Amino acid sequence: MTAEKISMEGKPIDIKTPAEAPLTRLSFFREKLGLDNGAIDVLAPFAQKIIEHKHDFADYLYEYFIQIPETKSILSHDTWPKVIKNNWSTTFDMLFSNGPDEELMDYLWKSGVIHVRLNIDQRYINLAYSLMRIFCRQVVREEVDGKEFDDAQAVTDKLVDLCVLIATDAYLDSTTKCDREVVRGIAHQLRNPLMVIGGYTRKLQKAIGPESPDMDALRAILDESKRLEKLVADVSEYMDMYREDARRESLDLKVLMDEAVEYVRAKHTGDFPVHVDIDPSRCMAYADRRDVFTAFKHLLLDGLENIAAPPDGGEAAITVTTQPDPRDERYMEVVFFNTGEPPRPEELDFLFTPFHVRAPMGAGFGLPIARLAANKNLGRLSLTPVADKGLECTLSLPEPPRS
């Protein structure tokens, strides 16, 4: 099929221009809708008759949206009526010609990306697919024999459902990518000035005597620049994790925890009272390696930032243990406990909010990143204050599938 052209500000855009469609993810949706393994064969005897309605479908959508002021302004462009009708009729044709093959999914996804580029309100895209469902139902009712009607109607509904899912995926992918690029740009623009500020502050510290009245001010500037550098790094890490799909595999959490401990030890200055005691019989999880390592890293760093001697006496420490998840036998828990003053009950709701800071030099992203890692991997992260002792952070993760 030749590439369709869509006009934006008078310049043609090839429908193939956007990045490659995530066919693996889209195929997952197709499978979950039950559209694999010849499910659409029931439509084959009637496909040609249904396809004959493709131009009627394009006219139907056009006449509907030309009545809406917000969409009329787009459709009234000199080149649009013919182009957009051609796109709509092509979509209808492809839907019933070959079903939800990779060519159709690629076409729909890239069309969705271009809708975002053209700043078309996604609600109108969803409305168009609702109208598509109505039109397809009417055509199937006209063209399909009575005994085959129910099955044909069900498959047609699933095809439209897949169209909606693909359009939604394209919308989310494009908008989050835009957000991420903005954040990346801000982070990049901040990183260099912060390095310059830090470098010159250190030079000034060396140039003046340790007893200088300016030393405290320089120390404060350096500390704040370090905190901002950490904030920039954490924001970038959060956005990257938010966008990337989890690649789940069987993980030995003892090995991963040892790696996280060594990483944090190299970064941390001062005492390192971390004690790890992982049960060998409860050390396997099924999750994304990078996500879990990142969660471990931030939970350890958060504990070290907030550690203190427990109010009821004793030494400051962080302990890490594993245990079965009492709520679900298919899950296991990694429990991080750090001594210190536990957060107030009313503060718990805010601890997972980005930028909420407990420690003086914290960036407010450690717990949000750890929770995002848990959620991406079908797990949970919960906080339990222990009166006069400290805070318990429990990361629940699925165990590997049992054969």
TrEMBL record:
Topological category with respect to the lipid bilayer: Multi-pass membrane protein
Location(s) in or outside the cell: Cell membrane
Record-annotated Histidine kinase domain positions: 185-401
Enzymatic reactions: ATP + protein L-histidine = ADP + protein N-phospho-L-histidine
PROSITE patterns from the UniProt entry: HIS_KIN
GO cellular component, one term: plasma membrane
EC number: 2.7.13.3
Keywords, ordered alphabetically: ATP-binding, Cell membrane, Kinase, Membrane, Nucleotide-binding, Transferase
InterPro entries given in the database record: 2C_sensor_his_kinase, Globin-like_sf, Globin-sensor_dom, Globin/Proto, HATPase_C_sf, HATPase_dom, His_kinase_dom, HisK_dim/P_dom
SMART domains linked to this entry: HisKA
Molecular function (Gene Ontology), one example: heme binding
Protein name: histidine kinase
Source organism of this protein record: Oceanidesulfovibrio marinus
UniProt lineage: Bacteria, Pseudomonadati, Thermodesulfobacteriota, Desulfovibrionia, Desulfovibrionales
